[in-house]
């Protein structure tokens, strides 16, 4: 007689759970013709009523991109992507310039409701006992355009600008021109160049000198239209002494074919400024056999330009069929601090090659890297991290902690650190561990009454604790649930 | 009442051989009683504990194990736990990053949910846990620490007893809980078990040595050898074993 529920079976059930954001919204769309060309770039720019300088910038990026090739160095098996088969612009029709939420297509509002996004201006409960109420300003991006930004008046009173970048191009052209492309140059890499040519929308945040942003800012990205690439561009600037915390969440419908997502995020922190950027990435990861899912090729970089400035990246990556993402910090100001906290989960046939770059260019700069990789199913999970100590980085320090957790015996975990030191007084530490979620741990939990699912969730959350505690409260709760429920997107 | 009838179980060894470890166990533990199972190494003591709690890796080839009217062998480990089976592990497992209070509350509430009882909120749980900790003369920080991480051998066993006190099982199986304990820890563990004595609580104390039974005085003692109960008696049987060794008993059987 067999024991009633074999643990491996239970693990599989947990790790292959369904994706709960897989619905599609039926909405009238304004879609550009398929394909990529200078004309499409012009069309996008025209649709968005952009000034001439931005069209030129896009066309230059397009020309640069045409000279480039898709990089092959990542530990990823990327099927050929036919960029000419994609739409580069898709917008919900009725939302051309909504003045208020009442003008937004109700179908769209229902979509955001299903996603649990507090689009209406209201305080949301943090979902944690005793945490009280907190306010979060939300910018919602649906396919190519931003459909609603909340709390703008409250923020404006504090001097904070939070709006779709397409609007910032018109309302604050000087700021956009000064900073866009200054951290991630157009020619930085293949996907960044592509994004620069065809970026659709994204968020723009400007926090002026001395202002502490009075609430969390949040953007939700949703890919909906079929065969559409999504190319957001986010730009966050914190002037001297300013601080801001920004959250990003992502979902997509379930589809057989793959969809491309190639975003660029640029952060600029001046003297004593602080930017905290948190992501819970839950793009559709593909089905259990590896069909469909989002290809997520993202360039995220922050420049600590000012002395004692501080940029912190926290990411919980559970979705996407393929993830290629290295949120990085350029530590240019003396005594500036960069941090990277990451949980990357892969299940089924997902692949992730993710990590960070900490580039120390000034004295007494510090960086911390905590990476937790969790692999289940047939997935492959790679941490790739670079720590560079430049000639001027006297007294600079880095600590890297890299832990991998394997669930089952068909998955893989890899850790690839790159370390370059050009200053003899710089100090680096690198610790790495690999462990397996053991049958003993699972049985111990089940003997106390936990279901296999709850046991896996609890053990995985325990493994990720150091990273989850860096997330803002309401996101941490969401991320914990995400890890527990879907070790699919898994734990994701 | 826990009732085990003609229980047979095998394991498959690494080289693919099947070995029968339990070879027809008959054992009844009435409500309110504490029974000891003693026996030499390799007799099948830990296998009995594992089979009762539903651990992977054993095949039950014949027999039954019933708790009241419930067929334990047909249930998943967590269902057995909710039905009231508690296993105090010989080697408690470390759960890095998982807080002891969180773990215990989640476990307790999972069991309560399964039994259709109301869950405890954080405040109710803490009150209960603190009372239990006080009763067991443990330190409050036990709840704040990660489950068994960095615990000494004695602390791990005490944590097992704490969990048992909080979960209040119908039947507790203590798998060589005394191994590796100094005399003070042994006394605390024993007091923890004795304090649970109640008409609806029974325990199966599995041990190699008589020592633990100086502190937990069993109602019955069973000797397990080569996968069978070869002799049963009162507490005096344990002392006889201590004096004469298992060999004499096995020969006599």
Characterise this structure.
The complex is a heterodimer of chains A (492) and B (253). Chain A has 492 residues and is an alpha/beta fold. Chain A has twelve helices and 25 strands. In chain A, strand 3 (124-125) and strand 4 (133-134) form a beta hairpin. Chain B is α/β, with parallel strands linked by helices. Chain B has seven helices and ten strands. Chain A binds chain B through residues 1-7, 129, 438-441, 443-452, 454, 458-459, 461-466, and chain B through 53-56, 58-61, 73-82, 86-87, 89, 92-98, 102-104, 106-108, 110-111, 114, 121-122, 146, 163, 167.
Question: Can you describe this structure in just a few lines?
Answer:
The complex is a heterodimer of chains A (492) and B (253). Chain A has 492 residues and is of the alpha/beta class.
Q: Which consecutive residue ranges of chain A, at least 5 long each, have pLDDT under 50?
A: 1-14, 95-99, 118-134, 488-492
| Gross geometry of chain A | globular
Q: State the major sheet of chain A.
A: 11 strands, mixed
What is the CA-CA span between the terminal residues of chain A?
A: 34 Å
Number of domains of chain A: 1
**Amino-to-carboxy terminus distance of chain B:** 27 Å
Listing every helix as H and every strand as E from the N terminus to the C terminus, the arrangement of chain B reads EEEHEEHEHHHEHEEEH
- Count all strands of chain A and give the number: 25
Helix content range of the residues of chain A, please?
Answer: 10-25%
Question: What is the name of the CATH superfamily of chain B?
Answer: P-loop containing nucleotide triphosphate hydrolases
Note the topology.
The complex is a heterodimer of chains A (492) and B (253).
Chain A: H1 7-15, E1 29-31, H2 38-47, H3 52-66, E2 90-92, H4 106-114, E3 124-125, E4 133-134, E5 136-142, E6 145-149, H5 152-157, E7 161-164, H6 165-171, H7 173-179, H8 190-198, E8 203-207, E9 216-222, E10 233-238, E11 243-251, E12 258-261, E13 264-269, E14 274-281, E15 293-304, E16 310-317, E17 322-325, E18 328-331, E19 337-346, E20 351-360, E21 366-375, E22 380-389, E23 397-406, E24 412-421, E25 427-436, H9 439-447, H10 452-463, H11 465-468, H12 473-486
Parallel strand pairs in A: 5-9, 8-10, 9-11, 10-13, 11-14, 12-15, 13-15, 14-16, 15-17, 15-18, 16-19, 17-20, 18-20, 19-21, 20-22, 21-23, 22-24, 23-25
Antiparallel strand pairs in A: 1-2, 3-4, 5-6, 7-8
Chain B: E1 2-12, E2 18-29, E3 34-38, H1 45-53, E4 59-67, E5 70-71, H2 77-83, E6 85-88, H3 100-114, H4 122-135, H5 153-167, E7 171-175, H6 183-196, E8 202-207, E9 220-225, E10 228-233, H7 236-252
Parallel strand pairs in B: 3-8, 3-9, 6-7, 7-8
Antiparallel strand pairs in B: 1-2, 1-4, 4-5, 9-10
Helix pairs in contact in B: 2-3, 5-6
